Model the fold of this input.
Amino acid sequence: MQRTNLQKDKLDLIERIIHTEDQSTLDYLKSVLNDETLEYELSNKQKLILEEATEKYYSGEEPSFTWEEVKINARKSHNEKKS
Done:
């Protein structure tokens, strides 16, 4: 069943591409499809930050948040910066 959906999605995209008249859309699609750097490498500093944060999380030193809590905190921070 999944294979059928995959094929249908591909055909739908092909049809949309065929009928698009917007050059910027085509340019964007070409850049995405030609991007061979689909994997991004973290720097050593970024890896260290991630490792430290993971250790704090597992030790209980740092709390974890649900996605909803993250969004609420981000909105609060954004609103505080506006004031």
